Amino acid sequence: MSSATVSGQSLREQERAARRAERERQKRIARDEAAERKRAAKSGFANVQNPRRSTVLTVVTALFAIYCLFPFVYLVINATKTQADFTSTFGLGPGRSFALWDNIVTVFTYQDGIFGRWLLNTLLYVVVGAGGATLLAIMGGYALAKFRFPGRKAVFAVIIGSISVPGIALAVPQFLLFAKLGLTNTPWAMIIPSLISPFGLYLMWIFSEQAVPTELLEAARVDGASELRTFRTISLPLLAPGIVTTALFTIVATWNNYFLPLIMLKDADWYPLTIGLNQWKDQASTAGGQAIQNLVITGSLITIIPLVIAFLLLQKYWQSGLAAGAVKE
């Protein structure tokens, strides 16, 4: 028998042995999975990917969803009512007439269209203030994560301490400082404090540490790329989820800011939506004031629509940003 025939038979035997070993391995895996499903079913889960339904968890989740969605449903229903229907009908029931479009038109025309001015003011504070805070957080967090310099630990301590201080505790000192500088009752009184986001800086620091490999930066430097080009072309795309997450936090914080403009601004022409709608709400309690709860409700609904759209469009980036660093690789 030739050596070629012997080697061919040996090869076929090896292939048959490999196939038998693979079949045995698949059988062991199937037995292990069946045993794991049986064991896990006793503890409440069929398997990791498809947990068994829990009536208690379903009820708790449903109650939490109702709790979160109830204010929005209330706004949608009552934004369709006239002022007379708002005060005379059930809060979660429809009115005698559908007045949503009329309410929207009245919101933007009431008091010479001041609501549109408040909306533009809020957009200004968000774009300049929250946008600037996001930019500073990106640059600061990236620098703290990827560069080593004296005082780095001290900066970290300051950031952690800043996060622990509530913003409302700084409102009065900020007012006194801005009053000395003559910046109260100006847009700068809203924009400058909004530029500082300790939590956003900390978030970008942690995210940059995990998302941007140091080896990748070193390779770019070896190829002769400048730090600015490396940051722009390599780091920024990798930081996209963290940037979106930080931007959402700063946008929501600036959009919903109430106490700071309350003490900083006196001129209604510079009010954001939060203060302006509160002024409309309190209008009925003033001498000769007219109750316009239907306009307050409709204005509130219009106010939250941009935030809802932003969250829906950026949801996937936001979720991946929150999960960064949660798993050790």
Automatic annotation (TrEMBL):
Classification via InterPro entries: MetI-like, MetI-like_sf
GO annotation terms (biological process): transmembrane transport
Segments forming domain ABC transmembrane type-1: 119-314
Transmembrane region(s): 56-77, 123-145, 154-176, 188-207, 236-255, 291-314
Region (Disordered): 1-35
Keywords on record: Cell membrane, Membrane, Transmembrane, Transmembrane helix, Transport
Places the protein is found: Cell membrane
Chain intervals with Basic and acidic residues compositional bias: 12-35
Highest taxon listed in the record's lineage: Bacteria
PANTHER family given in the database record: ABC TRANSPORTER PERMEASE PROTEIN MG189-RELATED, ABC TRANSPORTER PERMEASE PROTEIN MG189-RELATED-RELATED
Name of the protein this chain belongs to: Carbohydrate ABC transporter permease
Native organism: Bifidobacterium pullorum subsp. saeculare
